[in-house]
Write a structure and sequence with these properties.
Length: 68
């Protein structure tokens, strides 16, 4: 895993509750999830992230649920 000079700042904004070693290392996180056809937790609402379902379909449902 590489180093990230912005890791501390990124961790302040990271909404993922999974507790992985990539927290705050956005490029590592995005690359990891992309290889798995998933979306990082920070793209979800608090409720959507809590399901730990990182599928693109789950993201679409989450965004749809947020629409007024």
């Amino acid at each position: 895993m590489s180093q990230c000079s912005n890791r501390s700042r990124n961790k302040q904004d990271c909404t993922c509750t999974y507790g992985c070693s990539k927290a705050g290392m956005c490029c590592e996180c995005v690359s990891f999830h992309r290889r798995r056809n998933e979306v990082p937790g920070c793209f979800f609402s608090k409720e959507g992230e809590a399901t730990y379902d990182r599928s693109i379909e789950a993201l679409a449902r989450d965004w749809q649920a947020r629409r007024p």
